[in-house]
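Risk register update: the risk of archive-format incompatibility is retired. Evidence:
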Amino acid sequence: MASIVTPGTVVGTTEKNSPGAGITEQNGDLVALLTGVVTENEGVISIASHNEMLRLEVGDMIIGEVVKLNEKAGEIQVLSVEGKPNRSIMADQLFAQFHVTRICDRFLHNTADGLRRRDIVRAKVSEAENVVRIDMREDVNCGVLWALCPPCGDTFVAEQNGDWNVSCPTCGNQAFRALADDFGGEAGKSALNGSGKRWSGAAEAQFAKGSAGRATFIAEDIREDGSERTYFRFEGDVGGGRQERRQKAAPGCRLFVGGLSFEVEDDELREKFAEHGKITDFALMRDETGKSRGFGFITFDKKAMADAAVAALDGLRLKGRKIGVRDADAPKEDKPRRKEPEGAKLYVGNLPFKASEDDLRALFKDLCDSVHIYWPADNAGRKKAFSFVTVMPESKAEEVAKKLNGSDMMGREIKVDIAKPRDRNNRGPKGKSGDSSGKSSRELRALAEEEADSKKKKHRRPKKD
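Archived output:
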């Protein structure tokens, strides 16, 4: 008894045989496309099947359903072939593709300008080899045979109104379809396509809306119960790099939360703020890796709720850090400038790095009434080798500078002098043309001393054991 093969079974190779009916060639193998018995006749292998399937040929008129629409191409599922027995289509020819230029004799920006998903169409096969390709443009009998209205799901009827050639009797929606001549079972409908005509301004405006003007989704799908659809909404950042458009909050309702620990979770932060009212929007900002950026935005339903949250949570310690809460839309206040202490300012250079402010203050306290010290530090927090000391009364400044200049402090000979005021025009010491950086001569000298000291350390030879 001959064995029965199923689709996908390798039944031979192209070295010894050639493919016949029900056989396809793939990478040198002969593969069965049907369920049946393998037969060989003069080197040609075929499948003898009791349930014969149709194989599409160039020129066939096919009926199909539009199942996929991209911007410039689409795809239909083949349902039947006109003029041939009502049999199943071969598996490798079940879907056929088309280009936007092969839909109708009119310029279409997008495939969805002339077709929509679920439309039933008639088309002519133009290629039938590895990929089945179809054409609806060259024959007036090709095009849309039946179509649904996307907003309500009722069936479109052919009706001319400017560029629109179909309308919905239920909701009044109007659209354009590349109609076959017998759309809806009546002849002469292909004349409504307006072959070769330009689109009017109203049609161009509709197409310019993008995807919103080309909705291919049937809102009231006849396969469903017609209930309203609900969609999941992400809070905070939206994927794909694009921010969700948010409704603008009422003044005073949107809060900025800063100083957050990177360990704070969304639920934990939300719970703290939810104690003070209804939260309408919540966004803890994160970087591209998902790590918290240390701040976020929380919107309350009412301003009174937001004010209560600010009063209760501003300055609260959360996960070891003191958070700041303020109105996100309030104008930022300028930080007050540091008030300069009253008195005469002295420059003190060549200071030992191990000295403290108390050590420096001890040098001056017996020579003047009051002492204020400003000791700059680098980005790492290390004190620099110079400072500025403001003393009172001003009349004693020169006397103090002379007494302390050249004195010893922890083994280093310090330099003390009157600090020259800086010119507001960034010219260095007042009345003289100085450095373009805006630093006074004393600051420039201090920087030079630091640089010289660091070079000495680099050239100092290491001690031998």
